[in-house]
Amino acid sequence: MKKYELMKSYDKSKHIESIKVKNFKFEYLFSKNWKKEEDIPYVLRTHLLDSYYCLPERPDMAFTFLWKCINNAYSTYQRRSSKVVQIGDSVLLQNMSDTIASRVSDKIITTKTVGMLIEKYIDKIPNKILRFISNYILKSYVIKQKITDERYVYSSYNTFKSKFPNIHDSIISAYGQEYLGICNPIISNGEVDLRINDKDKSLKIIHSLSEKLKELIKTRQTFLSHNNQTYTLKLNSEEEYIQFILFNILYAIRNNTVHGKIASRLNSDYVNPNSFQSSKYIYLLGYMFLSLMLYISDDIKLDDLEFNFKNIKCL
């Protein structure tokens, strides 16, 4: 059913049919220590139930409610663990990120650690997610260079640039200038039109950068070559590795979605069979990190994390 017809006369069943939902069942987060309702963190259970309500049809919408749980987890953790007054999502998420990085050697079961769990999820990352990262980096760079209006720059780009300056600068040297050369952006009716003059070259640049980002996030290091120069992209520590995932993937998707920077993923004009799969992946990746945050905060036990290994089979 065309989106125009749904807007004119809404029908939920036809909407779901148009999204081409692929049902999936997954293992739910639950702690053996939660003997009664009052044992479950209050804010967590209220938003997590809303998140479940959206599943399995809309993992993209479910992720919005899931992030409320994540936000509450890292905010509560800071209040519990420190008397220093800190505010702002970026700082609070950074605190939690660094603590997770310090616990990657914790053994969930005999042969599997927290670090192995994270790596198994990253091994399954869809190409569509990596193209999303590549797009917001290169598009924002072009906007900064040619429009110089911060209202149109993705906040996720500024976060990426500030947290990973060496990686950012190498990407710009290898890809940014070339991408800039095929764009002649204008602002039209409050939106940016990049006016790309070579669509094939644009796709090749995005694809190439996406493949390099995949190699970086899976192996912690990759190399870029351009104009007889080689640039090294490297995640130098567990802290940088966890930050890269939390800030450049999960937090970036959360920000761009909530602030209306990107179209609804499953209602987009460019929706395809991979769209549902990537939305499901983001949900389960976020779900796994929520469980890690609850473990760090002593709301669940280490062996309660075992369910995450079963959910990898859903990806």
SSE inventory with pairings:
Elements: H1 3-8, H2 12-19, H3 42-53, H4 59-81, H5 89-101, E1 107-109, E2 112-113, H6 114-122, H7 127-146, H8 155-163, H9 165-180, E3 186-188, E4 191-193, H10 199-219, E5 221-226, E6 229-234, H11 238-258, H12 273-296, H13 307-311
Antiparallel strand pairs: 1-2, 3-4, 5-6
Helix pairs in contact: 3-4, 4-5, 4-12, 5-11, 6-12, 7-9, 7-10, 8-9, 8-11, 9-10
Structural key phrases:
315 residues, 7% strand, mainly alpha, two-stranded antiparallel sheet
Distance between the termini: 28 Å
**Proportion in helices:** 55-70%
Mean pLDDT equals 91
The secondary-structure element order is HHHHHEEHHHHEEHEEHHH
Largest sheet: 2 strands, antiparallel
Percent of residues in β-strands: 5-15%
Number of helices: 13
Please count the beta strands (DSSP E, at least 2 residues each).
Answer: 6
What best-fitting shape do the alpha-carbon axes yield?
globular
Helix and strand content put the structural class at mainly alpha
Q: Strand order, biggest sheet?
A: 1-2
Radius of gyration (CA) equals 20 Å
List segments where confidence is low: pLDDT < 50 over at least 5 consecutive residues. none
Write up what this structure looks like:
By secondary structure, the protein is mainly alpha-helical. Helix content is 59%, strand content 7%. The chain has a two-stranded antiparallel sheet. Strands 3-4 form a two-stranded antiparallel ribbon. It has a two-stranded antiparallel sheet with strand order 5-6. Strand 1 and strand 2 form a beta hairpin. The longest helix has 24 residues, at 273-296. It is globular, with a radius of gyration of 20 Å. The protein starts with a helix and ends with a helix.
